[in-house]
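Practice problem: predict the structure.
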Amino acid sequence: MDKKKRYSDYNAYLRELFGERVQKISIDAGLSCPNRDGRLSRLGCIYCNEKGSGSGLSEKGLSIREQIEAGKIGSMKKYKAKKFLAYFQSYSNTYTTVGHMKALYDEALSCEGMVGMAIGTRPDCIDPEKLDLIQTYAKDYLVWIEYGLQSVHDDTLKRINRGHTFQDFSRAVDLSRNRGIQICTHVILGLPGENRDMMLETARTLADGGINGIKIHLLYVIRGTPLEKLWQRGAYAPMEQAEYVEMVCDFLELLPKHIIIQRITGDPHPDELMAPLWASRYRETFNLIQDLLEKRDTFQGKYYIPGR
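Answer:
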């Protein structure tokens, strides 16, 4: 655990593995999502806009290599980084053929300074053949697969139009284990219809769920999403900052120390954010979480009970 933080910090984990700063470079591979292209629906998740949390760089004609080289310039200047992870972020990055996946990953990892990759996808967009391919890279590189889950409650998943179940997620994790692939899960706090107990049940369930890392996000309202319409008519209210900070600390207390915390809040694009406006103050929220952990004299795993 990072001595400066009261949880297992991702940057510290990378520094311990590689002996220096390692910086993620986000990539838009130009792929789609079954919840966008009509296979499941055309609406997407209620909080997701048409860009699918992506940069749109693929639509601008930038190749994987060009995106990485551009990202390296900023990372080298800001962080003095010399080693990098390719982060396939936009949409579902296993939602294509195995051959296409191989071409994308080969191009990314052929760039100088790359020590691994992270593949963002959905639990219903993976199968043994795709994992067999990803496993081949884990022999020589650090490889994370990131499954968007958001909640362990199926009623919530229906409410936010995820298009998959918690059982789909559990199956994906089971298929991914024992392959040398690190498994990260995305969860969102403040989802419509969820109370404190439900959010903490997500933490307890994932604590022994076979995952290696987690990203904790705030649900914020982005322009042009179904969630914006709910918010505008008063059918959804985002969490207050203090409430979110408390919940993150409660959540961390239930996770075992071996789970790497890759993110503790979201970082919305300021031009797209509708509410809550405090979500744009990432550093402030980050610091408030650190301060509350210190004030409580608490830490990740304090109330973790194996098998609960």
